[in-house]
Write a structure and sequence with these properties.
With about 140 residues, the protein is mainly α. The protein has helices at about 10-15, 35-60, 80-135. It has a domain at about 35-125. About 60% of the residues lie in helices and about 0% in strands.
């Protein structure tokens, strides 16, 4: 009633894990998954760490001025340390977002060039091995 399922290539793809090497074309013609670790590291350093830092500093710094000076912007008042951290976080958000996008783009370009170079090298090695194994030439 039910046939036996051959999970050979699919199981091999799944067993490689999240840190799989370069993308290779499997037996079925599909592309094996690539590691997302470089993207996670780059975006973690550029987005997650600053966001957590702003949140922690905002929650731990005082919400009053120690000198007794009035709080706020303008007319001789200064923002509290907690509000200053939020203000600086707002100012840093757009540059950090753009820097994260550029970092992801650079990672993608470097990986594509490396894959193209490796594919060319593999093609040359395959051609050389065919030439060496053919006694008729």
């Amino acid at each position: 009633m039910f046939g036996v399922l051959d999970a050979g290539p699919a199981l091999a793809v799944l067993s490689r894990g999240a840190d799989a090497g370069p993308a290779d074309v499997g037996d079925g013609g599909g592309v094996e998954p690539r590691s997302v670790r470089p993207y996670i590291v780059a975006l973690g350093l550029l987005w997650i760490v600053p966001a957590v830092l702003v949140l922690v500093l905002h929650l731990t710094l005082p919400d009053y001025n120690a000198s007794g000076q009035c709080t706020g912007l303008g007319f001789g008042c200064t923002p509290t340390p907690a509000d200053t951290v939020l203000f600086l976080g707002y100012l840093a958000a757009l540059p950090l977002f753009l820097l994260g996008m550029v970092a992801c783009l650079v990672i993608a370009v470097v990986r594509a060039r490396r894959d193209r170079r490796d594919a060319g090298r593999d093609e040359v090695e395959t051609t050389d091995s065919r030439d060496a194994g053919d006694p008729g030439r």
